[in-house]
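SAMPLE LOG
Freezer: B-3
Tube label: C17
Construct: single chain, 120 aa
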Amino acid sequence: MISMKLSLDHASNSKLSSAKEIDTRTRFIMDMIMQLAAERERVNKQLHALRNENKYLVEKLHDTQIATALDACNDRLNNRNEDQDSNIDSSNGSCTKSSDEEGADPLRNTFKAGAKTIRE
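STRUCTURE (predicted):
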């Protein structure tokens, strides 16, 4: 009878120990899930900020390329020895063409081939 009681006590203690270990592991896993959720949120916010910054930089690059093309046209206009009327008539086509060409998407002609970047 005593051995049965000892065996029962041992089984109860073993169950209690297992339950405590399961509880500890469950808390640890839940803590890790919460940390992962917080980290995912932080990474998503950072990704959003980087996308916005990239969009801004692409627009700035686009504006800079247009401004550079217009400056080049203005320099050509100022360097000509023709009168002002012929400057406007003869150079509008080339300036418009240059600004259109420069205003095109700068990444349009970039292709990735393996690890190399190829530009047309």
